[in-house]
Amino acid sequence: MRLRSLASVFSSDLAIDLGTANTLVFVSGRGIVVDEPSMVAVNRQTGDVEAVGKQAKDMLGRTPVGMTAIRPMREGVIADFKTSEKMLSYFITKAHGRKRFVRPRVVVGVPSEITEVEKRAVIESALRANASEVHLVNQAMVAALGAGLPVTEPSGNMVVDIGGGTTDIAVISLSGIVYSRSVRVAGNVMDEAIIHHLRSEHNLLIGERTAEEIKFQIGSAAPLDRPLCMEVKGRDLVDGVPKSREICDTAIRKSLDASVATIVKAIRVALEATPPELSADISDRGIVLTGGGALLRNLDVRIKNETGLVVSIAENPLTSVVLGTGKMLGDFKLLRKASLN
């Protein structure tokens, strides 16, 4: 795979944020053209793909016998190779207006602590999905780039990208990674914590979609100015019939506390490992949060209280990774420094 061929920009080049929860695709000259759930509905009997993306997510928890909705990505890496290949192929084809014979060069953001086996799985899946070349870049690095941080300057920038499967933390200076760490605690673990809480404390069984809705409607990382409650519908585990319960933010915040504490601890470890000169820069500039997890209410307040630093949320936290990856398409010098291949 020759990095030199990325020096020139072609309209077929793609930047992909291959996330556990959502996949976004950026095309040179056109911007973000795909933003859909990383999900595939598969017929168990034939193995055929019935739906991908939003259509597949709409089926989650509602599929008939013989069909299942699969998340081929887990903790930021490929867990189901065959299904990931089909999902990528669908998104790449969709990005190019259903043109099947386009063979794009692809840059993909991946977690910093991805293993060599996991790297190979991403590369092979993309190549089988009709990519001509595949280049992997550090997810936190491109998140910082997409958030507009001055990563090329000789000063410290700290970014925390909280996705669906991983939280990636990095300190960046002079276009390079000074420190990076990936913890496999993020949005999906928070959803699971909510499911467990309602099952154990309220005898109420809910699915992933409902847990995600609860997290965004009343979830928080620190106490709110005013209480929030919502009616949650699920199946009563005692009677086995549909029931609803009123759940409030205090209970959900308690269920999320272990996940939030893990993320905060990882940030503190990163701060302790940062060289003194760059620590001074971070003290002045603060920490920038990106990713869907950054939208959890009062997460910035919790991190600020526990680190004493200014914490801000990127202007477009959900798209920071793919926008930063997109910038790599036309910057050969930066791609060469950031490439993990």
Could you explain how this protein is built, in words?
The protein is α+β, with helices and mostly antiparallel strands. It has 3 domains: 124 residues, Nucleotidyltransferase, domain 5 (2-Layer Sandwich), CATH 3.30.420.40; 90 residues, 2-Layer Sandwich (Nucleotidyltransferase, domain 5), CATH 3.30.420.40; 69 residues, ATPase, substrate binding domain, subdomain 4 (Actin, Chain A, domain 4, Alpha-Beta Complex). It has 11 helices and 18 strands. A hairpin with a 3-residue loop joins strand 1 and strand 2. The protein starts with 13 loop residues before the first strand and ends with a helix. The N terminus is likely disordered.
Features:
341 residues; alpha+beta; Nucleotidyltransferase, domain 5; Actin, Chain A, domain 4; 27% strand
The gist of it:
The chain has helices at residues 54-58, 81-95, 116-128, 139-146, 187-202, 208-218, 249-273, 276-285, 299-307, 320-328, 332-338, and strands at 14-18, 22-27, 31-37, 40-43, 49-52, 67-70, 73-74, 77-78, 105-110, 133-138, 157-162, 167-173, 176-183, 204-205, 229-236, 242-248, 287-290, 311-313. The chain has 341 residues and is of the alpha+beta class.
